[in-house]
Amino acid sequence: MLDPLGPPPLWLQEAVKPWAEWLDLPSMPAHVHEIILAFVFYQVVHSVLSPWLSPILCPKSYPKLNPRTRLNWDIHVVSLVQSVLINVLALWVMFTDEERKSMNVGERVYGYTGACGLIQALAAGYFIYDLIVSTLYIKMFGVGMLFHAISALWVFSLGFRPFLNFYASNFILYELSSPFLNIHWFFDKVNMTGSKAQWYNGMLLLFTFFSCRLVWGTWQSACVYYDMWVALQQKWTASASSLLDPVDITASVFKLENGSLCLDETCARANAEISKYAKFTAGGVPTWLVVTYVSSNIVLNSLNYYWFSKMIETVMKRFRAPPAPEEKKKKVQDVQKFTEEVVLEAAAKLEQEEGTLFLGDEADEKIASAVGAAVADKLRRRNVEQRS
């Protein structure tokens, strides 16, 4: 699929091209306008839209926030807008980009479509914003958030080689849990801690986190490992075939029949676009790049499993408490209340573990969640009173 927004002005492409070639990112000039627009859009949301709209939507909460929490609120608004927008666009690309669907193993590693480039550009624009915020407020958010912004921007920028352009939409879907995590944070700040709405949102948060980050994320990691292994084998085979001829794996990567079944010019252009940057593919994928991607992916997946294990640990603590004899006679309403508390505590733990690093919660707000320490104690005391 061609880039729905089209190419940038020629003067902008020419201005960026020398830098892109020096960085070995040949497809970046075709998307530089989207990177700039995304960055400007998120900065406007942070500096203009959120400060203007938040007091209107939350007149009892936003104006009373201290400067640090208000800054954190605006950042959460940007994160919410970005995660919703990028997920919707990624799903749209995955379902409508026919050229992307037709890619073989080699094309999934080296191939390119403008629509996938759009996803990478929007993600890069957000991570530039994230990098600037993390740098300006490093004392507030810590080094961890800064390193996350740097690594995320670096990984998505390398997609402009192009490298793993196919997987841009797949891995963006990790963020499907982020809207619910942000909403969870907002419920705290508008005095809806422990409400039904927060409980339902907590259920969606836990479900999407497990489904998208653990199940989907692990499966996609296995797929990308396989594709990169095949790409390395193609390079090694071509390198060993002749000591005199230069390595060129282009013919074994891209299908020759691309565009042969098209009935219109747009389809033919979209198919031809897959191998648009084939000349950069000739030497194969560098081994260091594969090692870097695998290492980064393992670290991120390990963090996801760690956060989920802390959440499960929180849940199990509630169920390990020895039940009183009267609990056998509990009514359905009491069981439901207990379940709600468990879900809220689990969501709170997830917010504490993940939100502090990636969403910028201050040190003094680490446990500002669905059930803060005081609220959790209150809930436990209420259970004890009901059992006695």
From TrEMBL:
Superkingdom of the source species: Eukaryota
Keyword Transmembrane helix: yes
SMART domains linked to this entry: TLC (SM00724)
GO cellular component, one term: endoplasmic reticulum
InterPro entries: TLC-dom, TLCD
Annotated membrane topology: Multi-pass membrane protein
One GO BP annotation of this record: lipid homeostasis
Keywords: Membrane, Transmembrane, Transmembrane helix
Pfam families the record matches: TRAM_LAG1_CLN8
TM ranges: 35-54, 75-95, 110-129, 136-160, 166-187, 199-219, 288-308
Compartments, record wording: Membrane
Major place of residence: membrane
Keyword Transferase: no
Every TLC domain range: 68-320
Cross-referenced PANTHER family: CT120 PROTEIN, TOPOISOMERASE I DAMAGE AFFECTED PROTEIN 4
Designated name of the protein: TLC domain-containing protein
